[in-house]
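Dear colleague,

Following up on Tuesday's group meeting, I ran the structure prediction for the two-component complex that the binding team flagged. I've pasted the input sequences exactly as they went in, so you can double-check that nothing got truncated or mislabelled along the way. The structure tokens for the whole assembly follow below. Feel free to forward this to whoever is handling the docking comparison.

Inputs:
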Amino acid sequence: MRILVKGVGAAMALLLSTPAVAAWEPTKPVEIVVAAGAGGASDQMARMMQAAIQKNNLMKQPMVVSLKGGASGAEALMYMKSSEGDPNKVLIAYSLIYMLPLSAKIPFNWRELTPVSVVALDQFVLWDNSAGPKTLKDFVAAAKAASAPFKMGGTGSKREDHVLTVFLEQKTGAKFSYLPYKSGGEAATQLVGNHTEANVNNPSENLEVWRAGQVRPLCVFDRERIAYTTKVTDTQSWADIPTCKEEGVDVQYLMLRAMFLPGKVTPEQQAFYVDLFHKVTQTAEYKDYMEKQALKPIFLSGKDMVQFLEEDDALNKSLMTEAGFVAK
Amino acid sequence: MEALGLLLHGFAVLLTWKTLVLMMVGLVLGIFVGVLPGLGGPNGVAILLPLTFTMDPTSAIVMLSCIYWGALFGGAITSILFNIPGEAWSVATTFDGYPMAQQGRAAEALTAAFTSSFVGSLVAVLLITFLAPMISSFALKFGPPEFFAVYLLTFCSFVGLGREAKHKTVISMSLGLLLAGIGMDTVSGSLRMTFGSPELLRGINFLVAVIGLFGISEILLTMEERLALRGHAASISLRVVLGVWKDLPKYWVTLLRSSFIGCWLGITPGGAIAASFMGYNLAKRFAKEPEGFGKGRIEGVFAPETAAHASGTSALLPMLALGIPGSGTAAILLGGLMVWGLNPGPLLFVEHKDFVWGLIASMYLGNVVGLVLVLTTVPIFASILRVPFAAVAPMIVVSCAIGAYAIQNAMFDIWLMLGFGVVGYVFKKIGIPLAPFTLALVLGNRAEDAFRLSMIGSGGTLKVFWSNGLVGSITTLAILLLFWPVIDNLLARVGLTHGTRATSP
């Protein structure tokens, strides 16, 4: 009930503050395309946006979430590519737009889509079982001393989790066997059940098992600590997790969460969605979600976004090449 | 008992007119989506999820879970009347349910299906109520080797316990495994057998194949043999229902066995499908007259339905307690929970008691209300069989096509479904069983992934499948079942058992 009241309040505020409607508006229900399975981080974010848009009346047409996680997300990419000129489909993208074309030779290039906005950056954290080593140093020492390589759980093969594992090996000299699971949720429970020694899940994927005291965060793969200082467990907040660099292992990676339209849509249509997602980032739902899932807020569109994408693409390409994951 | 007190509290939360009305609405919508093949539970819940955003979490989840129960009940209707399974786990229900309908015993088969769904769910809900914390820690024991052992057990029980010729079962299963390999290989991250076609990227969807293999091929066969649906309206009345119920105690062993299998497999993800097949096969193996199976035995409906629903219901437990959805529908409910700000995980039972116990109470109520609702509507559904074939066949084909399209919004899937219809027709003509094919298609990928992850983790040694008591006993049981006909004969020879009519010559 409290959420409802808050939502209605936010809606009223928006109705009063926003100027006249944009020139173009969708005339059909808008499909938000998720390139991952149900319950994963992309799906959760899409459902948050669906709820934020509906509760705050940001759009006249309803928004429906459509899960196209087949072929590790390639299904969604091909679907967007083949929907050229259709302004009623929005993709919620992440680093797969750079990585899949390289590792699986999918005939896809993000430049063929219309960029709308970057809405968040996602962190990666190194986690181990709460019965395991307490610091990164101890963990690396234990991994080196172990008779069989430590098992590292992750999502998918030759993707961000796998890349991070390879770089962790390079920087520490320890060896890991990488186990590609179907989702971050599965990687989390497998760590709790002691079937793996560690994983590199996003904060949201391990949040609940961390709160239950079943896993321990060792370090975050970013230049600086996560900003949120509200206590998540009894003793720790996200900001209490050291960076890997502080602990002596300089590995960094941030993942984009961005919205794209299919190719060949009009500038008016693009402008409508830039405005729509800008409004979404102003809602209480979005702000709550960012803090709860420990995401970095960001909003980029237009030239800034394209520049960001080009730099990010180049970075991912070099990481993939260095890790040896580019298909010949 | 703390659980009992909390449960009563849950009932108190639920028993308002508003919730009861939402429950009825949910059930009716659920039955409706369940009857349309392919639409099924996951799509129904997904379509209606946004309707609930403005409700409070308890009302919302009650309505959504009632859609789920309704769809489960509804799925049995098409399996029995038209040989078209609505969900993966309804496949085994068609084996005896459809022959019963053809013999004019549709009402009896429907009553049996609904009643056993109710029994299976009830056992599972009781289990959730009293053993939730213990069971969720059991699910954590499952790593890749354990998962593989369970899949192996399912495959082996099919070969060892099935009554069809062994080589035909193996042929059928191998073809299924081959097709399951199409698409993205998650372990290596590269594409297999897609031949550069973007349509094949997704792989072959199990439901599309099933609608074609069972539904379309049945229409083709009927067209060839007789232009009429066999079976006429059975005399439907309270008498039929009471008759089935009166016989129920006779089958208590079957019901109990299936409930047990269902609950056990339900807490491991993807278990509902394996459970329904295993329940059916074991019922057949332990029956006094196994010959009658596949020709319209009521036990052949009881066994898979009880197991499927026991596991479908207990699949909600790992979702709530660990955040791993056990089925497609559970996955969408999971998405819903997060929208309402509830994070499934070990702390959900501690921090949101009201919600969890309200949901569990709604499982009891939803099942009882659902049973009454479907039983009273049996006559309406059974009367569909009285419609002339010429009128009903095009409607079935069209609804199959809509169903196949709706799963992934792909036109290609309709062609695929028609292709599978022809394959199913040919298989039936040359006597190759369809069930092992569908089983391999749905579990093939998971079994392969689990096997390869076990191998990566163990450094390539098969010993990992005997590395602890749990995985060791499942693997051993699987191998025993695979060679069961041989073992059974040997035992009979040394005079230890009477030998159940040996299947292999």
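Chain A has two domains: 2-122+254-323, 125-240.

Cheers,
M.
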